Amino acid sequence: xxxxxxxxxxxxxxxxxxxxxxxxxxxxxxxxxxxxxxxxxxxxxxxxxxxxxxxxxxxxxxxxxxxxxxxxxxxxxxxxxxxxxxxxxxxxxxxxxxxxxxxxxxxxxxxxxxxxxxxxxxxxxxxxxxxxxxxxxxxxxxxxxxxxxxxxxxxxxxxxxxxxxxxxxxxxxxxxxxxxxxxxxxxxxxxxxxxxxxxxxxxxxxxxxxxxxxxxxxxxxxxxxxxxxxxxxxxxxxxxxxxxxxxxxxxxxxxxxxxxxxxxxxxxxxxxxxxxxxxxxxxxxxxxxxxxxxxxxxxxxxxxx
Length: 305
Prior knowledge:
The chain is α+β, with helices and mostly antiparallel strands. The protein folds into three domains: 4-70, no CATH class; 74-214, Trna Endonuclease, Chain: A, domain 1; 218-273, no CATH class. It has helices spanning 19-27, 73-88, 126-136, 189-197, 230-244, and strands at residues 4-7, 10-13, 35-36, 44-49, 52-57, 92-99, 102-110, 113-120, 142-148, 159-162, 169-172, 174-175, 187-188, 201-204, 211-214, 219-223, 252-256, 279-282, 289-290. The strands form five sheets. The chain has a seven-stranded mixed beta sheet with strand order 6-7-8-9-10-11-13. A four-stranded mixed beta sheet has the order 16-17-18-19. Strand 6 (92-99) and strand 7 (102-110) form a beta hairpin.
């Protein structure tokens, strides 16, 4: 099944057809207009599942190598939602866009930048995810993957984890600090698409793992103790600003009672690590004062790691 088709030789997206045109095509499902698959040119017919409009191959007629024929209804639903989310903020979005060496699920053009949004719900080898990302980056400015469950490749490419049922909520992949310690609370996929396109979500690649930082709610540690000079603390803040493109007025700065290595602010800690920095300051969620490890607020039990 696909969201697009060639109708009488013209590429058409089902969702953008006006109601009367779609009803006319749908009413003549297995006859009438010449509907073809953009991938393998096999015959297709119109199909609708709930509010989602689709085109389906006639049984047994598609090529065995046609990638569009293998996509599940869940995959099509997620692609459709990504398109809708992009268009809601005024972006131009094209679904199933063919490029040399591949096919981008959703190509978005917004404020002079081209972005690829990829839905991936099935298994994928790490090497394939990296190769596809590299291929797409020769055509667009950024690539973001949307997936469910635990994926080995998701830490190697810009990826956001979604809930496994409705696929409408981002549950992992975004943090609000640059050390990858404090995750952003669950939020709608549409908000994440907005963050990616507005570049408020910044991807920080790492040697073994990468992650997004939400610059609009970035929390950074401002080191201060008897052993830390003002210049060193100011240097840390300047480094944060240089890496994110923000100015100091846009950062939430907190004082700490310990003196961690400044570089640790920008490096994900090893899995299973136990080192924590005690933060003292106001909780960025409720404003309550806290003096506990990483986000355990006295007044706001929801803001935690």
